[in-house]
Amino acid sequence: MEGQRKADLGNGTYLNPIVAGDHPDPTILKDGSDYYMTFTPFDASPGIVIWHSTDLVNWSPVTAALTKPIGTVFAVDLCKHNDRYFIYIPAAAQGKGWSIYVIWADHIKGPWSDPIDLKVTGCIDPGHIVGEDGKRYLFVNGIRKFRLTDDGLAADGPLEPAYSPWRYPDDWVVEDFAPEGPKLLRHGEWFYLITAVGGTAGPPTSHMVIAARSKSIHGPWEHCPHNPLVRTTSAAEPWWSRGHASLVEGPAGDWWMVYHGYENGFRTLGRQTLLEPMEWTSDGWFRAKGGDLSKPLPKPKGGKSSTSGFALSDDFTRNKFGVQWSLHQPAAEDMQRVRHEKGALYLAAKGQSPADSSPLTCLAGDRAYVAEVTLDLLDGAEGGVLLFYNHKAFVGVGFTPEHMKTFEYADELAWMQQPMVTSSVRIRLTNDNNVVTYHYSHDGGKTWVLHGLRMEVSGMHHNVFGGFLSLKFGIYSAKKGGIRIRDFTYHAIG
């Protein structure tokens, strides 16, 4: 599909990632013979896109569960209880601290409820579990826990310490201790608590997966003797900072671990979703069996192949908003800037440049690709294409009715501005292993002009700019009026 990379190699094996591109903090739910997974959406709205699989390797999006912006969202938890689906959401609204919200639905495709604030502040990374007492609990970073009401829609007890995690040797090269991402399951007579420590980014050898177990949700917890279960031990490995794991039973009854990691040399793609086989040991613990994930691994047995990914090319005859397209860090009213027209998407202007706009973004998971789009400038608007990390880190080209502009590392290059009368322009952006080339055409793509500046963007990632984000394809609309977006095409080239 458009040359996009695919985990399933078609010969009974797969090669990670199972979901390419910026899909961090995976939370996975086994629901009969179906699997559902969702990820951290950060500042994207609509957000919390739910993906579906029947074999754990091939995944495709179903719907966006969070349709109203509630701020920056980190590390959600998807679960099912008494035939109802829940997503617990840590969110920080602009100017406010973190709080845990919940949305629910009777069907995985929705409709999903509006967010309900549990009013448990200062927490991220929820993990849901039902205790031996039949009560519901959320574990959070720290590692702390609090009880939920039976309906799961309110807190029903204090936030309290739950577990003091295993510590790695002091001479290991990690970012910081940072116990986070608690995920729990009940297996046999034990509760198992899977946790991340070591820091989420930083040095490649930081993040790791550890485990503990207890016969009570209230402890005491004993450390797994095999800790850490997963860790990058060398910067030469293909996947860095591996962590934030969940355990899931495969279609044939074997067990797997789902977590995220940065791809060596491509932190710009964000943290991608990885799948590793595991085994239960005779002493009631478990081990990871995938090594450094550099080689293909046998696919889970027993599952039927399902759809993998989706086409990014868009003629705008269908509404892909919320699955493919989202606005970055929108205000509550910003969804009103978007409307579908026949074969086009209209995006009203906001701000004076990409630096204060809320651009339309599309997540790509390939290391090299070509993307093209036609922009019509309406009522004096300025518009263009970007590789966008955040408002302080982006590159791109833009057009006003009178000029072409060039943006490098969030600044307009005044010396590159050229007089150019434009009402409609087709723009081609080529990202070839973090080297960016632009072309533009004023005759619908019949002839192309090479832009005079190439850019190298491998440093535009979290370890430089913070935020744990990725470099996305973006389209901005600024100044006044709006732009009409037509005929977006995407093709991976490596």
Automatic annotation (TrEMBL):
<keyword id="KW-0326">Glycosidase</keyword>
<dbReference type="InterPro" id="IPR006710">
    <property type="entry name" value="Glyco_hydro_43"/>
</dbReference>
<dbReference type="InterPro" id="IPR013320">
    <property type="entry name" value="ConA-like_dom_sf"/>
</dbReference>
<dbReference type="Pfam" id="PF04616">
    <property type="entry name" value="Glyco_hydro_43"/>
</dbReference>
<protein>
    <submittedName>
        <fullName>Xylosidase</fullName>
    </submittedName>
</protein>
<dbReference type="InterPro" id="IPR041542">
    <property type="entry name" value="GH43_C2"/>
</dbReference>
<dbReference type="InterPro" id="IPR023296">
    <property type="entry name" value="Glyco_hydro_beta-prop_sf"/>
</dbReference>
<dbReference type="Pfam" id="PF17851">
    <property type="entry name" value="GH43_C2"/>
</dbReference>
<dbReference type="InterPro" id="IPR051795">
    <property type="entry name" value="Glycosyl_Hydrlase_43"/>
</dbReference>
<feature type="domain" description="Beta-xylosidase C-terminal Concanavalin A-like">
    <location>
        <begin position="313"/>
        <end position="480"/>
    </location>
</feature>
<keyword id="KW-0378">Hydrolase</keyword>
<comment type="similarity">
    <text>Belongs to the glycosyl hydrolase 43 family.</text>
</comment>
